[in-house]
């Protein structure tokens, strides 16, 4: 494919990398581990040969967490963005597409792990093939993060990938905000964020709140990211609009009744919105 270099960075900018094209097998992954790690409805990854990848800065700040027998999941210890990580053999580097800059000269080729898709995410028909687990040419076992049950009916559990932190939401009536702004894409290292905004009475911590770190973007009025310092998963944080809950961390269906795409003016060039939910260039009108 085309020549050239693609650069990427985390939300806080302290970890930076570059990779030479060609990028291979770009896929949207719906597995429960990706959803929790990224806090998003699904994750999007591209692969590159290890020799074509280089850290430019901040490698010492990269924390790795091994959730499975496959390669480690890596994240920025300061801001929680998911950053590239090696495969088991060390031959390839897996790059979360949300952290990459500009057009990539490649496009998603499939949805994988569709059998593990979030029950609350209606996967639209975008013409891409779907696979229950890996694509046939990919190797690896099917991977699942065990699902946590809520402590009582009427609530749904959410937890980070490693299980150190957990929370609950009251079921029903939720609006999913799928945000395409560059900050959300960087923070979640995904095509877009997917957040629920919870009033205090509909949200409660179950465990591990003290093990989370909150990163606040200095130039922003209120943008930040809370993440598990052990596994890097995005977790809820308090804000003037209530608790911002990354839907990918949910272990069950919270009862979403409305969905919006916001900041579509900043959408990733490689991502196509294929559903018919309302779209807003930036914030929706009040
Ligand atoms: Zn960072
Ligand atoms: Zn996955
Ligand atoms: Zn964790």
Brief summary:
With 286 residues, this protein is mainly beta.
Report on the architecture of this protein:
- The chain has 286 residues and is mainly beta.
- It contains 2 helices and 22 strands.
- A 5-stranded mixed β-sheet has the order 9-10-4-3-11. The chain has a 3-stranded antiparallel β-sheet with strand order 1-2-5, with no helix packed on it. Strands 6-7-8 form a 3-stranded antiparallel β-sheet.
Which helices and strands, and how do they pair?
Layout: E1 5-9, E2 16-20, E3 24-29, H1 32-38, E4 43-49, E5 53-57, E6 62-65, E7 73-76, E8 82-83, E9 85-86, E10 92-96, E11 110-112, E12 155-159, E13 166-170, E14 174-179, H2 182-188, E15 195-198, E16 203-207, E17 212-216, E18 224-228, E19 234-235, E20 237-239, E21 242-246, E22 256-262
Parallel strand pairs: 3-11, 14-22
Antiparallel strand pairs: 1-2, 2-5, 3-4, 4-10, 6-7, 7-8, 9-10, 12-13, 13-16, 15-21, 17-18, 18-19, 20-21
Bound molecules: zinc ion (3 copies).
Descriptive keywords:
single chain; 286 residues; mainly beta; five-stranded mixed sheet; 2 helices; 22 strands; binds zinc ion
What gross morphology would you assign?
Answer: globular
How many DSSP H or I helices? Answer: 2
What are the bound molecules?
A: zinc ion
Q: CA-to-CA gap between the ends?
A: 45 Å
Number of DSSP-assigned strands? 22
Broad structural category? mainly beta
Q: Describe the biggest sheet?
A: 5 strands, mixed
- Kindly report the average pLDDT value: 94
Provide the succession of SSEs: EEEHEEEEEEEEEEEHEEEEEEEE
Stretches where pLDDT is under 50 for at least 5 consecutive residues are: none
In the sheet with the most strands, the strands line up as 9-10-4-3-11
Calculate Rg over CA atoms: 18 Å
């Amino acid at each position: 494919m085309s020549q050239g270099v693609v650069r990427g960075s985390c939300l806080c900018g302290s970890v930076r990398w570059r990779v030479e094209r060609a990028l291979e097998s770009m896929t949207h992954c719906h597995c429960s581990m990706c959803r929790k790690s990224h806090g998003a409805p699904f994750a999007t990854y591209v692969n590159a040969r290890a020799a074509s990848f280089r850290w430019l800065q901040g490698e010492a700040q990269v924390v790795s967490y091994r959730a499975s027998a496959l390669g480690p999941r890596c994240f920025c210890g300061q801001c929680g963005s998911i950053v590239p990580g090696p495969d088991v053999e060390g031959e390839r580097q897996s790059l979360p597409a949300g952290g990459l800059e500009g057009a990539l000269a490649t496009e998603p080729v499939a949805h994988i792990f569709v059998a593990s898709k979030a029950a609350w995410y209606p996967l639209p028909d975008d013409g891409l093939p779907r696979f229950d687990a890996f694509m046939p040419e990919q190797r690896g076992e099917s991977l699942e993060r065990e699902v946590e049950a809520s402590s009582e009916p009427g609530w749904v559990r959410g937890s980070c990938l490693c299980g150190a932190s957990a929370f609950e939401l009251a079921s029903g009536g939720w609006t999913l905000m799928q945000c395409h702004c560059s900050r959300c894409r960087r923070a979640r290292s995904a095509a877009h964020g997917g957040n629920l905004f919870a009033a205090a009475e509909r949200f409660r911590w179950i465990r591990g709140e003290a093990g989370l770190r909150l990163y606040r973007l200095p130039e922003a009025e209120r943008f930040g990211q809370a993440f598990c310092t052990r596994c890097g998963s995005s977790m809820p944080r308090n804000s003037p609009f209530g608790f911002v809950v990354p839907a990918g961390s949910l272990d069950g269906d919270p009862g979403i009744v409305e969905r919006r795409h916001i900041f579509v003016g900043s959408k990733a060039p490689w991502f196509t919105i294929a559903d018919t939910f309302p779209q807003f260039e930036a914030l929706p009108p009040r």
